[in-house]
Amino acid sequence: MHIEDIITRDGRTVSFEFFPPKSPEAVASLEARLEVFAVLEPSFVSVTYGAGGSTRMHTHDLVVRMRQRKLLDPVPHLTCIGHTEAEIDAILHRYASEGISNLLALRGDQPADAPPLGEEEFPHAIDLVQRIVRFNESGGHPDTRGFGIGVAGFPEGHPDTPNQLVHMEHLKAKIDAGANWITTQLFTDNSHFFDWRDRCDLIGIDVPVIAGLMPITSLATMRRMSDLAAGTTFPARLQRRLAQYQDDPASVEQAGIQWAVEQCNDLLDQGVAGIHFYTLNKSDATRRIFEALGAGSSSAALRSRL
Ligand SMILES: Cc1cc2nc3c(=O)[nH]c(=O)nc-3n(C[C@H](O)[C@H](O)[C@H](O)COP(=O)(O)OP(=O)(O)OC[C@H]3O[C@@H](n4cnc5c(N)ncnc54)[C@H](O)[C@@H]3O)c2cc1C
């Protein structure tokens, strides 16, 4: 099913993001944990892709295993930076032959320690979107519509484009090129998301927008989030709450989860199309958020809160 089909069926999506572990032990540990995530009945899960890195095949392998186990519906991320057209086409053929329905099409970032790139065949995510659309039109996918295509959105902007008006035009161009939905960068201040969603509306972006959330489970996680999502702000009210528990990790975690619960309640009340949890492969915080939201053991209760 395409993501829009799921939204039409369920009203909204609840999804989880994983990264493919590197070591065999970490893979086994994640695979065991997938059962715990599956109990929460997400609409889909997504698996990140290491731009320019050596872990690219891990994404493919994890996605295929998830599909074979039929526990969770996987959406692979695909970054285009550093890839040739032939490589991208080979990946698209492979995912199509395995019946993967959706892809999250991204540019990716060149790792800091990697040599500078020369002339790029895919300088921006829009180039990948266009390539997937061409693949879809060629009839290479068992679904006559081809892959459903998601792209990234940045409610607080993106470091490469300080001009926010231009940045919104780049996002609109990805939708016009054929993307069907947007998943956002993580944010901790809903007012940024709501304002940005209004700006999407103003510029004529009418595809579903799925909000990305990552619960803060420790002060170190907050620093990591700040690295992962450069430019993301942490409201003073949140920082003040966490700071009072400097020496009490359990209370920091509880406060971080409570903050995420408040964000979710607000987003659900304001009719968000979906919530995407950046899980860092850990199930505990996600499960606790579900419990606190009164969703019990599955996301069905959240999806039905229209
Ligand atoms: C939901 C989500 C999932 C992610 N998953 C991964 C992952 O799995 N692996 C990974 O490596 N990274 C991932 N990232 C990070 C992402 O790849 C980086 O943030 C990257 O810098 C931007 O990717 P993009 O797809 O938005 O790129 P683009 O849409 O290409 O935008 C990148 C920058 O270029 C600008 N731009 C776009 N088009 C043009 C143009 N035509 N001319 C000039 N400038 C332009 C944009 O305004 C923006 O500043 C993810 C991010 C999000 C939000």
Output the radius of gyration: 19 Å
Ligand list: flavin-adenine dinucleotide
Q: Estimate percent helicity.
A: 40-55%
Sketch the major β-sheet: 8 strands, parallel, barrel
CATH topological fold name = TIM Barrel
Topology as a string of helices (H) and strands (E): HEHEHEHEHEHEHEHHHEHH
Which class best fits the helix and strand makeup? alpha/beta
Mean pLDDT: 93
The CATH class assignment is: Alpha Beta
Count of distinct structural domains:
1
Number of alpha- plus pi-helical segments:
12
Q: Give me the side-by-side strand order of the main sheet.
A: 1-2-3-4-5-6-7-8
Indicate the overall shape: globular
Strand percentage: 5-15%
Report the end-to-end length measured between terminal Cα atoms: 21 Å
Could you name the ranges where pLDDT drops below 50 across 5 or more consecutive residues? none
Give the beta-strand count. Answer: 8
Annotated CATH architecture:
Alpha-Beta Barrel
How would you describe what is shown here?
The chain is of the alpha/beta class. The chain has a single domain (3-303), classed as Alpha-Beta Barrel (TIM Barrel), CATH 3.20.20. 47% of the residues lie in helices and 14% in strands. The protein is built from twelve helices and eight strands. The protein has an eight-stranded parallel barrel with strand order 1-2-3-4-5-6-7-8, surrounded by five helices. Strand 2 (44-47), helix 3 (56-69) and strand 3 (74-79) form a beta-alpha-beta unit. Helix 10 packs across helix 11. The protein is globular and about 55 Å long. Flavin-adenine dinucleotide is lined by residues 48-49, 51, 77, 79, 106-109, 124-126, 152, 158, 160-161, 167, 170, 174, 183, 185, 212.
